[in-house]
Amino acid sequence: MQRRKRRRVVSDNGSLEHSKERRLAMAAKGVSKEQLKRIAAAVGCEVSTHRLYEAVARDAEPLLYQEQLLIEGGGTKAWDLFDPTLLVQHVLSKSRDLAETYKAKLAEKPGPWHIIVGFDEHIPGDKLKTKNRRKCMVLAFNFAELGEEVLQRDCTWFIPVVFRSTEMEDVLAGWSQALKLLLRRFLLHETGPRNGGIPFTVSGETFVLRATVTDIITDGDGHRQGLEWIGASGLKPCLLHCNVFGKRSEMEGGENVLITCHEPHKFVRNDDDSLYEYADYMLAAQRWWEEGRITKARRDDIQKATGLNNSQHGLLADRQLRGLMPILNVVVIDWLHTLFQEGALSVEMFLMYNTLAAILPGGSGAAAERLCEFLRTWQFPQHSTCKGRDLHRLFDKYRLENELTRCHRGTGERAVRAVPFAEAFY
Q1: Sign of the CA dihedral 397, 399, 403, 407?
Q2: Predicted local confidence at residue 129, as pLDDT
């Protein structure tokens, strides 16, 4: 029997009649119809999901504003996102308890607050798909003065941006341009948290919260996209230190050290002036290449030497933001991947494994077998049974690289889980 197609309601301009409302609803809440049904069932009411979307859309529409993104080939693309000030105001007006918390914290710390901005790519569905068109860059922010207890609650974070990667493909400088525009809204706009402040009312009393961006949290790939940095695979894999080079660069000697160096006192801290000087030099090199004054090979050499691939439309090229937000003081390096994913702890685990293989009869094969058998004997809580059951695979033979790299291979999450078990075994 042929499947009956659902009727599509089309408006006068040829678009789906409910498409705008649905986009607004998903941007505001980010939940599916099934989730809405479960929420309605939990509170014991029967409502139409379509009406819920319409209600959310009505609340969300006044909070949206539009930025114009420069795209390849000339022209601009409209980008809808939430205004940070209006978003915080709206949430505090709907949540009395959270507004009371803001009032109490503002009495304790009336000075300008510190905004924590975090972003990362969210990949719904199958992560192994070669072309996942649902991948999004999600950005959230909160205020450090609220304290650890409040920051640990997901519901206290504000999400003004969910940007599909497919929409970013033709944007000049990609995510870096979008991030620049949002940070300008935070720091330079007259109604932003820094200049105009965020007014809110509690029990008839009005307060104004002023804040500035002091922390940008993401993983290495996030910083690579946001700052147009080459990243950990480049000649200069560390953004914060100027004398740290890649482990295969052969640059070790004098003050220079490799990324595998275990002596932090040898690291020379980079400064913002040097970073901006490199960024300006890279911009000049790109311009010279476009004018035909240097070759592409020369431009690539400059790119490797600076560790940057920035363009005039990206974040590092914005001179107004430079004075308000020193990048190296704001960037927070992801400690999880630095330590656990081919980082210092990975090297330590490799050395422990080699020590165990040297003292056990049978060498490396016996060591791997003993470790895997030890991890299989542990039982885990039900909510993490699947992850615990596969933990022994961290010590499979194929995860041990050769003597040149001297590094234990595995995801950061598995390494975090394996540390206490490795200590108990040794």
Answers
A1: negative
A2: 63
